[in-house]
Amino acid sequence: MLINYVPILIFTVVAIGLVAVIVVLSELLGKKKHFPSKDMPYECGMDPIGDARHRYTVRFYVIAMFFIVFDIEAIFFFPWAVVFKSLGWFGFWEMLVFIGIISVGLVYVWGKGALEWE
Amino acid sequence: MELVAQFLGSAGARMVVGLIGVIALVSVNALFLIWMERKVAAHMQLRPGPMEVGPHGAIQTVADAIKLMGKELITPEKVDKPVFWLAPIVIFLPVLLSFLVIPFSQTMIIQDMNVGIVLILAFATLSVLAILMAGWASNNKYAVFGAIRSVAQNVAYEIPLLVTVMSIIIMVGSFKLSDIVAAQDRYWFVLVQPVAFILYLICATAETNRAPFDLPEAESELVAGFHTEYTGMRFALFFLAEYTNMFIAAAVATVLFLGGWHGPFFPGVIWFLLKVYAVIFLLMWFRWTFPRVRFDQLITFAWKILIPLAFVNLLITAFVLKLR
What we know:
Chain A is mainly alpha-helical. In chain A, 66% of the residues lie in helices and 0% in strands.
């Protein structure tokens, strides 16, 4: 069984090798010249003000948390979808209940205003 | 040892040919798509686009690629060096791996895995990681903003994408891409699943960070987004991955909705490529038709419209299948 996944390994090695060759070749071909203003982070030609890794709005964390919850729930569709044909009506009603539960969660966060972006 | 011998038998030769084919396809496709994008953009704005290098500027992108080869690789100070260097690899890896399971024709498929579509969806998610790595490591404000936007957008549009794909899977009962195409020998799934097709196209546009959802690299506000600090071939790798991702998104659309290799007269591979480039043309058309959305619109659109719609579409599909 595992033999089926060997190509993934081979492709991984080749991809890493290819990128390494491209970057190393380009490093050898390109010129190298350093001066302070060139090594600065780009900020429209001005001297950068402070560090780039600032605090940012908490909305992004909220979105990330919803993603984890809903994505894990979406994963449960995968095995269900493959055997759906052999499940009969039971499979349908079961998934209806499941989607119902997810929808309750979605409606709840929606109602709480967590999806609004002011 | 036996496993190795067994593997080298027929699959080994297939692997080598496939690898060379894929690498050739990835580079030619990127060169062609960049030229095509410029030409499509130009003609939609009633201007000729690149004309000088080769007939109708056809080898302009080859010249660009050669120029990029000779450019200096700048690693600015204060970047997180290992992560900065690793990001181009991480973005290129899933791109190459996705080609493993794409069925170009009945026989032209490197490894017909039974987890096909799951593999592509899983690897597509990896590129989010690469974008975050590139943006965060760059220590550049535009890059960080671009990366954060990109992650929020990609994760929001992934859920409707997964659910939409599942509504096709329940019709076929298999993750194998060749099975999905084989199930469409009488009619294309786009005819019975038009809503799913539109949902998929919207999500694919968002997942490939293209206009009207190109906020991660909105050039008028974020310079170049997450790859602002990348130069030379490292920048080229991001570009290569972006255009190859477009190809993969279009290829998956072709497999799921447009009947893959099915078509009269020509061999399957020609039909497959024709459909793929037709979908890509559609994606380019979007770019010059719709204005860029605002970030709050982007996120609320995914959560309030696409996700409920995808669930409803899945349930209706399941209900109709059970009625039969």
